[in-house]
Design brief:
The chain is an alpha/beta fold. It is built from 15 helices and 16 strands. The longest helix has 19 residues. It is found in: Nucleus.
Length: about 600
Amino acid sequence: MAVATSSWQDFHPDDSDDEFEKSGEASFSGKTALLILIDTTPHMFAGWEDNKETPFLAAIKCCESILRSKIISNPGDLVSIVLNGTEQAKNSGNFPSIYELQAFSTVKVDMIKQLIEMRDSEDYNDFPNKIGSNDTYSLTDLFWQAKMNFDTAKTQLFSKKIMYFTSEDNPHGSRPNLQTDATSKFKDLGTVELNIVSFKEDFQFDKFYSKLTDDQSSVILAKDLESLQKIVRMKQRLKRPISRSTLEVLPGVNVGIGFYSFVRKALPPRALNINKRTNEVVERTVSVVRTDTGIPVLKSEERKMTNVQGETAVFTPQEMKEIKHTQEPGVRILGYYSARDFDNIIWYRSPVYFLYPDDDRIMGSKDLFSTLLKRCHLLEKVVVVRYVLTRGKSPKLGVLIPSVPDETTPSVFPQGFHLFPIPFSDEARKLDVELGAEATPELVEIMEKIVKKLTNKNFDILEVKNPALQQLWRKLEEDALDEKVEDPEELFDYTEPNEVLMRSRLSAKPKDGGESLIDQLEQTAAKLSRSFGKAKSSAPIQKRIDIEMEARHGRLMGCSCALLRGFLEERGVEIPKICGKRNLIDMVGKATGYRSFFN
């Protein structure tokens, strides 16, 4: 039996704030299978976008953009490209006019190279002779082949997506029976997300595609290539939970929910060990042996041990799992709290989750979840909860903040709860901070103008790129695809302050002819330095404590009775001659209106 000595951190591996990014990426179950269908009938080779290129070429460029994005963001997803309306046929079902250009597979370099060859060739890599184009096709056969492709994907699929590039809004318009057959065959696909990319300006959704999907927003009107590539990449963004669990509203009353994350850290790709002679991936294996005999030790024979006050405690692997699994995953409501008294910035400790109901887990979850959400929003309440994200995680304390979009101002978030992790009471620390001199009203006014002048109104955090990652992926793409860019686009780090631009903005004089902001700031700073130089005081610097701020955040127990009495006397509150600290805290809570459960 092999015994390994451990520290107490080994028994609590989830103490990190980034719970769902422990290993660098979220743990999703299953993969997404994307089937790209391209209409290759003759009208897809007509002029488009001022006759600069054809719809078919635009579709090929979009496919290349999708594959390049997939290989970076979701390398485990499956992608397949199927052409419809071809002279030649190549598919597993032996259907006519259907050509499988790329079978379902994770994105490989050869797949991107094939699209690059078609993109750069005048005849799309001899497309008329190798594949060809015609008007005779059947959507029924196309959807039948799509079902066969999804069924043969030898992996667990989380979601299925179809993206169809076409310029026809009424296929089989003169033959209603074929439209009926196609609609029936599409329903056999089950739950699938359909997106139609149309190159027809007056595309009419109601003619045929409304029979396949009720979501009219699934139609993407192709206006120009740049915006089209951006939209199709956005359509590939994942909408799946990082974890599925339950919300216990009352004892025995549970609601199915999913944990979502709106923002994830962009990480570089994982490094692999390879053989420098053959470039083959090297797999590492670790063998545990006894130090006295050298005999290999099985995994079941290994033990963990630690020293506790001179005693040795030994744990089996099963006992280690039981130690980590203290509570079942889920969210349990502890109580309700006034939204006015909760400051999510002060209590911020880790990334925020978004909770959305899951009817697939428990039927009727959306109705009960929506009722709770609307009542909390109406009463201006937040929900204090205890939650366990996944099995083996430690319980955390959190606050559910309702998110209900206003009818007048649309929101980027759907209706749901934002879960803010907050610390337990014994984790909240009081920092002994010495406050400096307060800024004068004149200085505050100038600084407010400076902040307003330097604020970028059109700033979007999602548009700020990481130049280090951009440079890394550019180099990897060049090496993998054998591409050498002669004049590469210069990469900028927009997080670096542009002092030249900032100073030029502040140096600009207003239209009324007054002084610039930077001149006003320098003059005010000079006045303050002179006044501080003349002031002489032998009294020591005293720490100033904002009692109202301490009451708001539940830290009155750390304040002395003298400070509490002084605050109440300033407010004109009568204090009994004999009054304990607990009574003083209650009186301060009444005077300020902050009765925190942390006090």
